Amino acid sequence: MRIEHEAEGETRTLAGDVDVADTFLSRARGLMFRRSIPDDYAMLFTFDAAKSRDLHMVFVPFDLDALWLVDGEVRAKKRLRAWRGHGAATADTIIELPAGAADGVEVGDAVRTVE
User: Fold this and answer.
1) Which CATH architecture has domain 2-114?
2) For labelling alongside 42, which of 9, 62, 81, 112 has CA 20 to 30 A away?
3) Annotated domain spans of the chain
4) Where are the beta strands (DSSP E) in 1-115?
């Protein structure tokens, strides 16, 4: 599975190494307690419906880029700082990427998972 970003008729891969957090435990743990993640990595949080979803960076010792999506459209984007970052927005999908991986992604762009 990979994460692709599409804008202005061009497609690029944001991550080729994707973990899916689709259970209560995997969502609660997220990236906590990891020392680092590879440059080509993403954690994908999937939900049944769009509603306000928040992220925290407690016990995450590196910066992240976070994307909040509804039906594959970016609704919010935020750089979350190590240990103390926090973000919230409406989403049915959240993607966490290494800091800088979402550079060029803008609200309104399409982001999708490809098997």
Assistant:
1) Sandwich (2.60)
2) 9
3) 2-114
4) 2-7, 10-15, 17-21, 41-56, 64-70, 73-80, 86-98, 110-114
Q: Count Cα atoms within 13 angstroms, Cβ side, for 88.
A: 4
- Which structure tokens are listed for 100? 């800088």
Joined together, the tokens standing for residue 83 give 């240990």
Mean pLDDT of all residues belonging to the chain: 95
pTM across the whole model: 0.94
From the number of C-beta atoms within 10 Å of its C-beta (0-12, 13-18, 19+), residue 79 rates as middle
Q: From CA 21, how far away is CA 71, in angstroms rounded? A: 17
Q: Give burial (CB, 10 Å; 0-12/13-18/19+) of 36.
A: exposed
